[in-house]
Amino acid sequence: MMRPSDTEGGEMRRIIDKKVLARCRIRGKRIIRSRLSVLMSVFLVTGGILALRLTYVQGVSHNRYMEMGKDQIEETQILYSPRGTIYDRNGNKLAFSVQLKSLYADPKMMEISPTQAAKLFAPVLKVPEADLVKKFSKNTHFVWLQRVMDPEDCKAAEQLIDQHHLKGFGFIDESRRYYPNDEMLANVLGFVGRDDKGLDGLEMSLDKEIRGSKDKQILITDIRGVPILRSSMAPYMAPKGKSVYLTIDQNIQYFAERALDRAMGTTQAQSGLIIVMDPKTGAILAMASRPTYDPNNFNKAEPAQFRNKAVVDIYEPGSTFKPIVAATALSAGTYDITRVWHDPGAIWANGHAVRNWDKQSYGDVRLVDILKFSINTGFAHIGLLTGGETLTSYAKAFGFGKPTGIELPGEGAGILFNPKKMRPLDVATMSIGQSIAVTPLQMVQAYSALANDGKMVKPHLISSIKNADGTDYYVAKPQIVSNPVDKKVADQVKDMMEKEISEGGGLKAQVPGYHMGGKTGTAQKLDTVHGGYLPNQYIASFCGFGPVEDPKAICLVVLDSPRGTYYGGQIAAPVFSEAMGQIMRYLGVPTYEDKAIHAVPVTEPAREMPELPSPNADTVVLPGFYGWSIRDTGAWLNKAGLRFRPEGSGFGISQSPGPGSTVKRGETVTVTFKGH
């Protein structure tokens, strides 16, 4: 039996335990509440800090962090859409862009070492291994290995990648400029460098118009920085550049360059140039300088070879300036064609004597004789009668002393006297084409006034510029920039220049079947470093036009520092003769024999023209040109993308290659013609 005391004790203990437990519970709750308060405070403070940080990141530093993030997943490469094509006046391609592949690497994706990769690719890319090791060691997702590769090198690189199962290498399409005629017209066209930028010639001056717009190629990576190669290259293709049609005629350019190159070989001249221009419109039909280069490999040329001497260089024109002096005196009324003057053999000015090239006197002469025989004393006399201010004023009216404004970079302005400071000796030397400097293009422009009834035209190379959709962006119009003399004076000087070729010092400039007019020139070469003249160095030139009855072309030839014979009438005049003979026949200009035989124009029988090859065809099957006119033959060959070399005049009697031959575009076809 339980004792009472025991029962009461147990009850008491239970009561005490309950009180203790209650107090513990209360204390626990207090502790929990305290800890929750601390924890909530921590959360609130942390949340506040995070909110402030988020506000800062999203607001103040948003752009910076966006760019940082973008840089981690994207690499943007700037490429360019193809440049516009440059054509000659007949639609023959002179410069165009082709799509080639460029090789790149992603060093972060490569599974072989930079040294191993360099050892593999160095023979294919033809670059030192050390250079490749540097590229492969870069901390980047993109590095160029070689731009615009030749197809053979590209194929070799592709085989190497496939053979060794290489990762981290790829190709991107890029455009490369191609000049199908190699050196022909190089100094006019110029060339294109990296990233499709024009660096010289028309490529440079027209860069804004014909350069392709920028394209974007974005290399996208995943969150780990691994590129998504195939899907990442998402190009945005910009519009293609505008196309340009030049006034240049590819065949006339060929005739001119061939004649110039022959002269460079026979005379061993240091340099040379030739310009052919339409005197009525100012259209440049041909322009060439020597030395020259291949714009397809411009990196192999010397800087001097890039120089377009026809536009940039200045020189003393010598006797080719005398027709300008004659026109000035006639127009100003200080001389006339009937006056007879006795040549004393020397004209003195400021204590210096101006003499003739042979130190002889020509006796009683008229203006036609003074020009025909290029009498220095006679022109010094005429110049002194006319005066320095009048001479300089007319020289400026003829375009000397300022650039012509042709669409080419670096054009020279020339040098004229300050008329208010001219001494009699300055007047006398200027009258014989010395002590002044002109550009070759200025001389051609000035002669256009004599050939074109006194109206001088502005030289230009661009016929039109077309948008990518074929619409006209620009169309050139002939510009008459000056009218220095009237038609009567121009005709009088033109007649005298015809006698220069038929009877005077320009006999070697004669073109069988045509009446040509022109003037020889021989001048000492300026010493541009020390002043004065270089000993035993001369510039031989000839400038003329034809036929004199209705001039179709002006042609200037300049040979710088030839060896041996250096007279313009001996070495420059034959170049004019060869080039102009081909040009006249090519243009279909009838000879004076043709005009005499056929007082009434003969209508050729209608002929069904053979079908032209496809524009995309690489080869052409030649028809037979027997019985064809020069004009029809040239037109068909031009449209077929072939060069034309006519021999003789009249109608076709033979050709090389023969009828039915297959030739590549750009090759030359020679056709022999014979009279009716």
Task: Describe it.
Helices cover 37% and strands 22% of the residues. It is an alpha+beta fold. It has three domains: 74-246, Penicillin-binding protein 2a (Domain 2); 250-297 and 305-589, 3-Layer(aba) Sandwich (Beta-lactamase); 619-674, 2-Layer Sandwich (Trypsin Inhibitor V, Chain A), CATH 3.30.10.20.
Question: What is this structure's SSE topology?
Answer:
Layout: H1 4-60, H2 62-73, E1 74-80, E2 86-87, E3 93-105, H3 114-125, H4 129-136, E4 143-146, H5 151-163, E5 169-178, H6 186-189, H7 201-205, H8 207-210, E6 214-220, H9 229-232, E7 243-246, H10 250-267, E8 271-277, E9 284-290, H11 309-312, H12 322-332, E10 341-343, E11 346-349, E12 352-355, E13 363-365, H13 367-372, H14 376-386, H15 388-397, H16 424-431, H17 440-451, E14 456-457, E15 462-466, E16 472-475, E17 480-482, H18 487-502, E18 517-526, E19 533-546, E20 553-560, H19 568-571, H20 573-586, H21 592-597, E21 619-621, H22 630-639, E22 643-648, E23 651-656, E24 662-664, E25 668-674
Parallel strand pairs: 2-7, 22-25
Antiparallel strand pairs: 1-6, 2-3, 3-4, 3-5, 7-15, 8-9, 8-20, 10-13, 11-12, 14-17, 15-16, 18-19, 19-20, 21-24, 23-25
Distance between the termini: 163 Å
CATH architecture label of the largest domain = 3-Layer(aba) Sandwich
> Residue ranges: pLDDT <50 for 5 or more in a row?
222-227, 229-238, 600-606
Taken together, the total number of domains comes to 3
| C-alpha geometry | elongated
Radius of gyration of CA atoms, rounded to a whole number: 40 Å
Q: Quick one: CATH superfamily of the largest domain?
A: DD-peptidase/beta-lactamase superfamily
How much β-strand is present in the residues?
Answer: 15-25%
**Roughly what percent helix?**
25-40%
